[in-house]
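Changelog-linked ticket: adenosine-3'-5'-diphosphate example.
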Amino acid sequence: LRSLPPSKMADVYFSMFPEDSEPVWSNPCEDNRHLKIWAGSKSCERLPKLLVIGPQKTGTTALFTFLNSHPAIKSNYKNPATFEEVQFFNGNNYYKGLDWYMNFFPVPENDNNGSAELFFEKSATYFDHEMVPQRAFALLPHASIVAILIDPVRRAYSWYQHMKADGDPLANSYSFLEVVTASQDSPRLLRHLKSRCLRPGEYAGHLERWLDYYPSTQLLIIDGDILRSDPITIMHHLQRFVKIKPFVDYRDLVRLDKKKGFYCQIMSNDSSKCLGRGKGRRYAPMDSQAEAILQRHYQPHNVALHKLLVRLNQPVPLPTWLKADLS
Ligand code: A3P
């Protein structure tokens, strides 16, 4: 048995148990011992009750905007460093700690009936990040989790187009076909780009990881095609899922903008506010060879997804692209 000053003792401990050196922020309100030593000015109400986890390019920004237009639902403040998303549970922001995260949310205001606003956060990179489900569950075990799915082939192409438009030098040097056919012999950066492009669309494996932590009753899967063509139905379903009050009729909040070809917010002066030019881009149709390669790539993932969605009984009905792909 040895005794050492605390920091020296910690060094010894972490050299013996390196896996414990990764912090996991748990919810102070779930543990009385933590609550006792937590500053009285802090509140677990300053944490989100709903996470929109992505993946990227499935309509997450549209859902974010629609949620934000609800009078009782509020998003986090913007993070200028990460294109507005907080991205706490993935990457280095996690090491900035709980106070850093909580400062992105307003101090909650109770209305006259005592019911608080519902805070939510949307970070589209959460969906496929290895560590996020475990970390999110440790801090937000009662949160509702929302994922959006579209045909993974279209998602991959939309992501590639997004990277190109964003000025990514690699995406601008290689065609989509070159990206999806990158092999072990290809340059490392190209292989990495391919993995970033394709991996999020391997939906079943990522969803199973979330379900390792969260019960299926807390997970809502949205069909991105319906979010795009009929967001009113989706927003009504989502409101029932999170049991928000008041229940708002989204026919008063969004409408189809013929020029943009998408649903947009109705503003107080009756004008439409659509998402920016980066959302709902127009680009050339996908190369048919690349499309066939991707369909083959996603086939086993889609079979697994089909089984998973049947097991979860959502979304109802199953996405049209999935049924078409499997037939
Ligand atoms: P494209 O730009 O490839 O068409 P995300 O916000 O997750 O990055 O997703 C972007 C995608 O959202 C767009 O991809 C577009 O197809 C889709 N989308 C769905 N509803 C939309 C809406 N109301 N306005 C604009 N884009 C929408």
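Closing comment: Example verified and attached. The first strand starts at residue 50 and ends at 54. Strands lie at 50-54, 73-75, 118-122, 144-149, 219-223, 254-257, 262-266, 272-273.
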